[in-house]
Amino acid sequence: MFGVNPGFIIRTPHYRIYTTEKSQTLRNRLPEFLERALAHYRTAIGALPGPSIRLDTYLMDTRPQWVALSKRLSGSNEGPHDMIGRGGYARRGIGVFYDIGLYDTLAIAAHEGWHQYTQRTFKDPLPVWLEEGLASYMEGHKWDGDRAVFMPWANIERFDRLREAHAAGTLIPFPTLIESTPQELAKRRDGSELTYYAQVWALVHFLREGDQNKYRAGFRSMLGDAAHGRARFALAKEHGRGEAARMLASRRGAELISIYCGGDLVSIGVGYDRFVDSIVQPGARNRITAGRSPLN
């Protein structure tokens, strides 16, 4: 029970799900969806380790229940829920969501599930732009009957925002993108944070397949090293231990990408801009809808 609301506890190999969700369809699909999402996290870029403990996930039926739970979990009337318009969040490896419709709820669970996973598993933190880019990359999925198939390009929401900002000339410049956080951009109240998510989603795709796969192997190595706590040594070798510690703590910039992918930040930014130009061309949306790369 949660107050007067009946609840359920569902255990899977890697999750404990606490839910008051009334929709049996969503309640039934969530456990397998989370397990398939976790498998996707661990294989989409390269082989990554699994969590050492089950990941606790809360799915509440309504926003008021979600707010009440968030206050209880944080021990305060103030918390992450104050800054979130809809959906949910992950904090200290715990996912806390509420029902916003079948597809959107599960897309949020896939996004925040990546944060849950890295919070519990990665020994070195990723820069914010890359953490959020990967979380957005993990959202894309389609359904084969009642089975989720993860397809990172199949993300109309991120693509449409990218295309709109590109057409309007309001894309965030690459140097600003890698030094910003969505929380900072949200304070502008001009929708910049949505453009940010679209651009970092595209940036992960660029690192995966842009410039004829130039950065793919280094990107894969960087994530593996961050997961196992080796990225700090690569930073220290290049910048010294003190500066490396500062970089990891600030979670800004693209020094890790520069080190692992072997490119200077200016050339990476120029290549990224060309990549965005290429993927928003007429006809690309049809490929995105089908979950295919617009480059093919």
What's the helix count?
Answer: 14
Element pattern in H and E: EEHEHEEHHEEHHHHHHHHHH
Structural Rg: 19 Å
Average pLDDT: 92
Structural class: alpha/beta
Task: Tell me the distance between the termini.
Answer: 51 Å
Cross-sheet strand order for the largest sheet: 1-2-3-5-4
Percent of residues in beta strands?
5-15%
The backbone outline, from C-alpha atoms, is globular
For the sheet with most strands, the description reads: 5 strands, mixed
Number of domains: 2
The unreliable regions are none
Number of strands: 7
- State the helical fraction: 40-55%
Question: What does the model show?
Answer:
There is one protein chain. This protein is an alpha/beta fold and 296 residues long. It is built from 14 helices and seven strands. The protein has a five-stranded mixed beta sheet. A two-stranded antiparallel sheet has the order 6-7. The longest helix is centred in the N-terminal third of the chain and has 20 residues.
